[in-house]
Amino acid sequence: xxxxxxxxxxxxxxxxxxxxxxxxxxxxxxxxxxxxxxxxxxxxxxxxxxxxxxxxxxxxxxxxxxxxxxxxxxxxxxxxxxxxxxxxxxxxxxxxxxxxxxxxxxxxxxxxxxxxxxxxxxxxxxxxxxxxxxxxxxxxxxxxxxxxxxxxxxxxxxxxxxxxxxxxxxxxxxxxxxxxxxxxxxxxxxxxxxxxxxxxxxxxxxxxxxxxxxxxxxxxxxxxxxxxxxxxxxxxxxxxxxxxxxxxxxxxxxxxxxxxxxxxxxxxxxxxxxxxxxxxxxxxxxxxxxxxxxxxxxxxxxxxxxxxxxxxxxxxxxxxxxxxxxxxxxxxxxxxxxxxxxxx
Length: 344
Hints:
Helices cover 38% and strands 15% of the residues. The relative contact order is 0.13. The radius of gyration is 19 Å and the shape is globular. It has helices spanning 28-31, 38-50, 66-74, 103-117, 136-148, 162-175, 198-205, 239-243, 250-267, 271-280, 295-302, 311-321, 329-332; strands at 3-5, 12-14, 16-19, 55-57, 83-88, 122-127, 152-158, 180-186, 208-212, 285-290. The model has no long low-confidence stretch (mean pLDDT 95). β4, α3 (66-74) and β5 form a beta-alpha-beta unit. This is Aldo/keto reductase. It comes from Archangium lansingense. Residues 16-320 form the NADP-dependent oxidoreductase domain.
């Protein structure tokens, strides 16, 4: 397992981590991801640890906290072998203060996650989204206090716009507060908007990408084919789950799938392995979160590492997945001499 440095920190993480959105499945939305109980989750954790994939990602809202509870039980007695990342910000209760990135909510969220996970520290704690109501200074002061108390080791964010992240980094620098070292972002061959602004920002400011939904919300599993019905067992069959993820024009999807099929024939690898390997060669990417409903899916995802696509194959996938940029990015691309694409 390859390990990469996380942002501007001295902390290293494996290139693949196991997402726990498939743990629990206690509500309609998360049933679309999976319904692993403690026994099955423990088996997945066993396989991951044996492969050196010792990072596990969760969130307080995954199945209403049940995913964290299951992860905690699966790691019982071997917490020291694991890197745990989790998230908070989204609504986790009915109270007016059970949402957001206020000091009140973040401290309660961290304490709740620690209890459910059965640990006394979180390795990487991330804001699940930007809270435009709470002052950035309040949020970062609360996170800094949690770092200084030892309850969390590193901080990150997720689903931020470029200005959200840059403003936060500026506040951290101004007041000497803990700094975001990771941005958990959506990025895939059918969703490359991360490259427009967040990637150059991450490259410049040394904020690593931790990629969620690298298979385009279940579209790049190798099961979807032009003119064929949705296969059984995909999250896209669950209307609520499908609507809650990125939307991809059908023709664009199948153009990418066709290119993936061509590369699959050349390499002997599967479609998801190729899609994951492509991501691992992109600038700023430190870690890619993979989900698995079962042991077979997890072992297939582990097959995405230990080899690399050729430059020609990367170029083929780049061309098939390219989409027109919105302003000002299409304009900036005309001035590549002074706006080069990140290279590492």
